[in-house]
Amino acid sequence: MAPLTIYYVAVGDNGISGPKIGCGDSLVATTTAPVRFTDQVGPSVGTLLANRSRNVGLSGLINVLYQSNLTYQGGELDGSTITIWLSGQFMLGGVCDVPRAKAQARIHGHGRLRGHECPGVRQRPAD
Questions:
Q1: Left if phi > 0, otherwise alpha if psi is -120 to 50, otherwise beta: which for 93?
Q2: Residue 50 lies in a domain
């Protein structure tokens, strides 16, 4: 058993709390309570997509994918890259949500974003 790492967006954080993404935001790693899994990607992506709230507790973080109707279909490991397959529709709230959504999906899929390794991202528990 181990916690899952779920990434959310810190709007206007400008890369202070994690990797900087479009519109001056940051991706911030949070952790769940310990769960059983054999493959962390599926449960992590599933947990992210199942969160239907924009705000992540009182943390100040947001889930830009909260309105999207997406389902994790699977993934494939090729060397150090994991490709994920999603089905459904993205529902985004504005121009800045596009890079935010791409960043959330990409970092869960292959653990890298613009040269940042996931373990190098500061982590804080989700509220």
A1: alpha
A2: yes
**Domain enclosing residue 25, as ranges:** 5-114
Amino acid at 92: L
| Eight-state DSSP code of residue 77 | E
Note whether residue 99 is domain-resident.
yes
Classify residue 86: in a domain, yes or no: yes
3-state secondary structure of 94: coil
Give the predicted TM-score (pTM) of the model.
0.82
**What whole-number distance in Å separates Cα of residue 101 and Cα of residue 67?**
11
Closest CA to 37 of 79, 5, 77: 5
Q: Domain tally for the chain?
A: 1
Residue 40: CB atoms within 10 Å? 16
In a domain, 77, yes or no: yes
What tens digit of pLDDT does each residue of 27-81 get?
999 999 999 988 888 999 999 999 999 999 999 999 999 999 999 888 887 887 7
